[in-house]
Amino acid sequence: MKIRILFSANTAWGIYNFRKEVITACINHGYEVFVAAPANDQFRTKLTELGCIYIPLDISAKGVNPIDDIILFFKYRKLIKAWQIDVCFLYTVKSNIYGSLAAATLGVRHIPMVTGLGTSFLRRNFISWLVAKLYHITCSKAEQVWMLNEDDRLFFSSNRIVSDDRLYVFECGEGVNLDQFPLTALPKEQVILLNARMLWTKGVGEFIEAAQCLKKRYPHVRFALLGFVGVDNPDAVPSTQIDAWSREGIIEYWGVTHDVASEVKKASCVVLPSYYREGVPLSLLEGAAMGRPLITCNTPGCKVAVDDGVNGYYCDAASADSLRQKMEQIILLSDEERYQMGLRGREKMERSFDVKQVINVYLQQIDPFFGRQKQVSHKASVNVSIVLYKDTFEQVKLLVNTLRQSAAVGQIFLIDNSPSKESRFEQLDACYYFNNKNLGYGKGHNLGLTSSYFSQVPYHLAINADIQFQPDILQTIVDYLNQHPDVGALMPKVYYPNGKTQYLCRLLPSPIDLIGRRFLPASWMRKRIAWLEMRSTDYSHIIDVPHISGCFMMLRMANLEKTGFFDKRYFLYLEDIDLTRRLHNYCRTVFFPDVSIIHMHNRGSYKDRHLLGVHIMNAIRYFNKWGWFIDPDRKRINSKTIAAVFSKKEEIDSSSPFSL
């Protein structure tokens, strides 16, 4: 089963040009990638050639019609649900806000990236207040909110738009492909290039004014513009104006290209005098990677790419005179001085801005254990995930040490849902991941299952921390599974610490079973519960059961490719029933009493009202999904199980006090 990832923004060209390396890496790692953006035949072709599934999505980047925005939210929700998306990466304001809100309502992991604050926060007004408020509301459930520079992080943090613990800064921006933009020799003639969308706030007007002045003094110097004209933006420079400047001989307009490196190669200096809130402009990173000196404003985002006087110069924002002075400084440098300045820029890109660093962060979010797996000196059969919530270090240490005594065990994943981090877990021989929030039982195990899927181990063990057993049982289980390829999930015999049997071989429950067990007198339900738990079998032989307890689930990974992992909608309780009954349609799910474990079994919902509420909500989700009193699959599966266990019809009838 492939993990499905959605990338979405208000333009397809932006996703392709800024994130094609990340998308390619995700596809190469076995993920299924979807792109949702406004229709664009040219970039649809380019993205599908990468291996993406392209979904046209109408997003009005600058529209302010609230009806359109509400419709966009429902479009996102429908898209995410229909394509069963597992992780969303969202870019640009409307995708960040309405894509995040849709993903949150569906319980889907999502990460909005703020690629710069743009014009919305240039000044404090109603628009900036509204955008900040929408970010605050819609990003509260995000896995993280990614920023491209420290200034933007401080703005979001100090204005309490997003809590500080959810903010993550890409210190290398979105990175630059150093292979695609190699260090090249400077051209013989001086050409100063502004590479950007043709927007006034990108400093296009200041660049033209400075070029006009410098052209008179240095007629041999050429000035060029590269980038989109006539974009859907009220700030756009009209194409007629670009044509007029070209006719006057002030600048050369190089148009739009998909081979940016070939155009940058012609330049001796790259300029971006942008004075709105950039993220980290890719055009500056590309120029520096190719060994070009830079000139930009000392403003958030732009200044990250330049060390003033080292690989370029800062100019004042919205000042044509300041820009002219810095451009003149570049012109007056010797060829060797310009080369050395560009070389220092290349070294800066290699040191801090390689796109490979960005790719690793993405993969770490999709699979939290990416790059953390510890070396295993033998060929392992089983990876193990343990979801923690306020578990003691001593208890977890004992379990990890027990697992490490088995040659069958490979990676051990500790997924911590606790409210605070226990740093001692990092000392254990396991991959520790602190979520900083409670994902729930199923979602937590899914993180470990994702890693196991891509590690291509045959089996994965999902267990509770309150389990004790002898380490040799794992090899016994693996040997049994190897000999019985039709078995897709297995549970051992389970005892309480006092030696009594835990009756966990269960039929699929009806609403009567769950309601009656919890709220009706025990004497009323005794016979029904004994039937549900199949107690007359005496738990002494192997049984095919439709419900395997989540306290110890040995799962065959090949079958999970067909069924999927734990259903993310269950926070706690019933996710094990849901997964077992899905597996039951493709393989055998068995009780294996040849080995046994001890389970503390706290029965939290009997002691805690909050957990009782969680239990009730998950029961509602379960029966909404599978059927309440009419559930043909439940009747079929239970009947099949009973027929296999009991030999005489009268025994079946007498064992079943209620209808199936």
Describe this structure in words.
- There is one protein chain.
- The protein is of the alpha/beta class.
- Strand 9, helix 8 and strand 10 form a beta-alpha-beta unit.
- The longest helix is centred in the middle third of the chain and has 18 residues, at 335-352.
- The two termini are 33 Å apart.
- The model is unreliable at 648-660 (pLDDT under 50).
- Helices cover 41% and strands 17% of the residues.
Offer a few descriptive terms.
nine-stranded mixed sheet, 660 residues, 23 helices, seven-stranded parallel sheet, disordered C terminus
Specify the helix fraction band: 40-55%
Unreliable segments (pLDDT under 50, ≥5 consecutive)? 648-660
Number of strands: 22
Integer-rounded radius of gyration? 30 Å
**What's the pLDDT, averaged over the residues?**
89
Query: Separation of termini?
Result: 33 Å
Sum up the overall morphology in one term: elongated
Topology:
Elements lengths: L3 E5 L3 H17 L3 E6 L3 H10 L2 E4 L9 H17 L4 E5 L1 H13 L3 E6 L11 H13 L6 E3 L2 H9 L8 E3 L21 E5 L8 H14 L4 E5 L12 H10 L3 E2 L6 H5 L4 E4 L9 H8 L4 E4 L14 E4 L4 H13 L2 H18 L2 H12 L15 E7 L4 H12 L4 E8 L14 E4 L6 H15 L3 E5 L3 E2 L3 H12 L3 E9 L15 H9 L2 H11 L10 E2 L7 E5 H7 L11 H9 L4 E12 L9 H18 L5 H14 L3 H7 L5
Parallel strand pairs: 1-2, 1-4, 2-3, 4-5, 5-6, 6-7, 8-9, 8-11, 9-10, 11-12, 12-13, 14-15, 14-17, 15-16, 19-22
Antiparallel strand pairs: 17-21, 18-22, 19-21, 20-22
